[in-house]
Amino acid sequence: MTERQRLFIGGAWVEPEDGHHPVVDPATEGIAGWAPEASRDQVHAACAAAREAFGPWSRTAPDERAAVLARAAEVIRRNLVPYAELAQAESGATTRTARGMQVGVAAARFRRYARVEPVEQPLPPQINEAGPFGPAAVVGAVAERRPVGVVTCITSYNNPWANPAGKVAPALAMGNTVVVKPAPQDPLSVYRMAEALQEAGAPPGVVNVVSGSRPEVGEAAVDCPEVDMVSFTGSTAVGQRIAEVCGRSMKRQLMELGGKGAALVFDDADLDAAVAGIGTTFSFYSGQICTAPTRVIAQRGVYDRLVSELADNARRLTVGDPRTPGTVVGPVISAAHRDRVEAYVESGRKEGARLVAGGERPPCDRGFYVAPTLLADCTPDMRVVREEIFGPVVVVVPFEDEEEGIALAGATDYGLIDYVWSRDVARAFRVARRLRAGQVGVNTVGRNMEAPFGGFKKSGVGRDVGAYALHAYSELQAIVWPG
C-alpha cells in the first residue's frame, strides 16, 4: 500500500512533520501501510484542540452525544469487512477474530455507550443542628458525575479496534474529549475509527489521533498540560513510567497493565472444559492477551492427564496464514516479539521445564509465527512462570491441596484475571474469593461485559467496562442545598 496516512487533529487531516513509518503485516512481512510520525508540537496541538472542544462538548445534551456514538457504531458495522481486512493486515489476526472480536466488538462498544444513563444519585437529606454554620436545617444533597476533561488514550497493539473503542466511547459519552495515541505496530485502524466518528457528526477537536514509533510521541501525549487524564493499556513497566508523570501534575489515571493469569484445576474439574478454556491461550490472538490463563496450576490427581490433553490440543491447532479458512493460530505482532517469546521458551527449558508441545518455529516461508507451546513440570521460581510472555505459551505447575494451590496462584506481581475449575461449586467460589485478582472465572474463560474490569497489584489501577467505564471517565461532584 502506497497511501500515507495523515494525522487527525482538530477535525482536520494533517501532514505529519516527522514523516511516516511502515506498518508491517505480521503474516506476510509486507507493508500494510504507512503511519504518520507526529512531532511533539503536533501532539500538543491535538491536546489543545481537545481542550478547545471540551467546553461545548461537555455541555452537549447526553442524548445528543449518545446519538453520535450510535451513528458511529452504524458506520463501523457498515464497513466491517474492509475495516477487518485492515485490522488483519496490521495485527495478524485471523479473519474470524478480526471481524468478530476486533471490529465487531468495537461497534458493540459504541452501541453500548450510546445508552443514556443517569449521572445523578440523590442522597438522603441530613438534619443539621444549629451551630457555627447557621440555624438548624434539613440539608439535601446529590452526587453527580462530571467529565474529567481532556483524556489521552494510549492503546495496545493486540486489538486495534476493541481496545480504543473501549476507551473512546465511554469517555465521549461522559462529555470528555480525547487524544488517541495508538500502538505503533497497528495504528491505521484507529484513524478509520476517527473517520467513522467524523462521519457520525463528532465536532472538530472532540476526537484527535496522533501516532508515532518513537517514545517521544506518547510522552508528549502524557505530559502535555492540557491533558487531565491518561487511559493506558500496555505493559506494567510503561504504565509505571506514565504513572510517575501523571503523579507530578495529579492527572487522573486508568491503567490496564500486564497479567499472568493462574488457572487452578482441581482433581474434580471437568477436564474437557478446562482444556478448552486454557487452550484459548494458544489460539486467541496467538496468546497476545493479558487475560489468558497462561499459568496452569494443576492438582496432582489430574496433572498427568491435563498435561497430555493440553499437549494434544496444542498439536491439533492449525498455524499459518490468518486469511486462510481453518487457520486457528496466526502470527505474533513482529519479528522482535517472536524472538522474545522463543527466548522465554528456551529459558524455561534451561531452567528445567519439560517441553511437551511446540518449541520449534512453524515451517512458514514468511511471517512471525510461534508454535503453540506447552511447558510442564515447572516451578514457581522459573521466569516462564513469573513473567508475562504474551504469546501462545502455557506453563504447568503441580499442587497438592487447596492451600498450596491458592498460594501458588498468588505468587506473582500480577493480579488481572485468574480462573478456577472444579465441579465443587462451593469450593470454586471459596477459592475465587481468596485470589488476589480483579476478576475470577469459575469454570469459564468467558466475560460478562458489564462486569468491572481491571487488576490488583501491578496489573493496573482503576476499573472500566459497562457502567464502570462511565465512572472511570468522570469525577464526582456533590451539590448540597437547604431543604
From TrEMBL:
InterPro entries named among the record's database cross-references: Ald_DH/histidinol_DH, Ald_DH_C, Ald_DH_N, Aldehyde_DH_dom
Keywords (A to Z) from UniProt: Oxidoreductase
Start and end residues of each Aldehyde dehydrogenase domain: 13-478
UniProt keyword annotation of Ubl conjugation present: no
Domain of life, source organism: Bacteria
Keyword DNA damage: no
Pfam entry (one): Aldedh
PANTHER family the record matches: ALDEHYDE DEHYDROGENASE-RELATED
Protein name per its UniProtKB record: Aldehyde dehydrogenase family protein
Lineage start: Bacteria, Bacillati, Actinomycetota, Actinomycetes, Kitasatosporales
